[in-house]
Amino acid sequence: MAKSKVLVVGGTGYIGRRIVKASLEQGYPTYVLQRPEIGLDVDKVQILLSFKKQGARLVEGSFSDIQSLIEVVKQVDVVICTMSGVHFRSHNILLQLKLVEAIKAAGNVKRFLPSEFGMDPARMEHALEPGRVTFDEKMIVRRAIEEANIPHTYVSANCFAGYFVGNLCQMDRLTPPKDKVNIYGDGNVKAAFMDEDDVGTYTIKTIDDPRTLNKTVFLRPPENILSQRQLVENWEKLSGKKLQKVTIPQEDFLASMKGLDYPSQVGVGHFFHIFYEGCLTNFEIGEGAEEASRLYPEVRYTRMEEFLKLYA
Ligand code: NDP
Ligand code: GFR
């Protein structure tokens, strides 16, 4: 059977570019949305041209012109959207409602993967303000997809290593601290971490798989379920240097939200749920959901000791 034609919307983005790469690597006819609004963003243009060089087809469409989105969607079988959702970058999750409208009007799409790739928003009804906005908006998009009966897969990717591992789970930095490391509570709450290239690989594995139709797929491979203390120990072994551990009690961490700007408040909320509450690992993956490393045991996913070597 011919491989599905895949459209990536948001393909020049942080996770989007990994998904385009994985789609090409796995031999899918790959289309990438080229938005006229990118204008003089030379980095985006160069990324798009690099995709074209690797065999992707660039297709013009704009979120300001629904007809253009419909024409683009009509050319493919699968649509993956990686719309921005990190507040200090940009956050346009609800723009996807236009894409849902276009998919509904086109009527040909076999699978739609909306921009999720983080905590499962269906499990975050209790989330703190203002960070809950991320999950509330993703649920609005899910409801629109399901009301339109669009076949879908939701990918819950846990923590991107680039945002959570290189910095040993510290906020406001992306590289390891030099002397002291903030430990959230006792530091033993389990989270789950993913190399972004593996997020791309697993995402593309799901698109033609009947087992993932209308399901949530969690990326939670067993060896990447780790506590913050385990990450710090891995780093200390790698760097040969002990870090001074500074314990941050839960109430102090939450109190730190006061006076921060909005994007930082969002981040504190997300970090709280992950590292104090354990929201990524405090449940079994059951009915109506799958775990990617069980579905695709052939994928040799990157372990976090390996990932950390990059920073040594
Ligand atoms: P980016 O900030 O990289 O943005 C992705 C793309 O969104 C852009 O490349 C752009 O597409 C598109 N976009 C942004 N603004 C607009 C607009 N106004 N109109 C049309 N398109 C727009 O996104 P991320 O990769 O950081 O986030 C993607 C998803 O991953 C989100 O759902 C986020 O919540 C999640 N995430 C999860 C993390 C985790 O640790 N689990 C970490 C970070 C993000 P184009 O390429 O066309 O310009
Ligand atoms: C893990 O799941 C998610 C992570 C998610 O479902 C949605 C968004 C994210 C964000 C995190 C919290 O907002 O992606 C990365 C991270 C963004 C962030 C990192 C925010 C504030 C910070 O200080 C920060 O330091 C690394």
Structural overview:
The chain has helices at residues 16-25, 42-53, 66-73, 96-106, 132-147, 161-164, 196-206, 228-239, 250-255, 262-277, 292-295, 304-308; strands at 6-9, 30-34, 57-60, 78-81, 85-86, 90-91, 111-113, 153-156, 159-160, 180-184, 190-194, 215-218, 225-227, 244-248, 289-291. It is globular. The protein has a domain at 6-158 and 194-221 and 284-296: NAD(P)-binding Rossmann-like Domain (Rossmann fold, 3-Layer(aba) Sandwich), CATH 3.40.50. Strand 1 (6-9), helix 1 and strand 2 form a beta-alpha-beta unit. The strands form five sheets. It has a five-stranded parallel beta sheet, with helices on both faces. By secondary structure, it is an alpha/beta fold. Bound molecules: NADPH dihydro-nicotinamide-adenine-dinucleotide phosphate and ligand GFR. NADPH dihydro-nicotinamide-adenine-dinucleotide phosphate is lined by residues 10-16, 33, 35, 38, 44, 63, 82-86, 89-90, 92, 95, 115-118, 157, 159-160, 163. NADPH dihydro-nicotinamide-adenine-dinucleotide phosphate binds next to strand 5 and strand 9. Residues 3-308 form the NmrA-like domain. Keywords: NADP, Oxidoreductase. GO terms for molecular function: pinoresinol reductase activity.
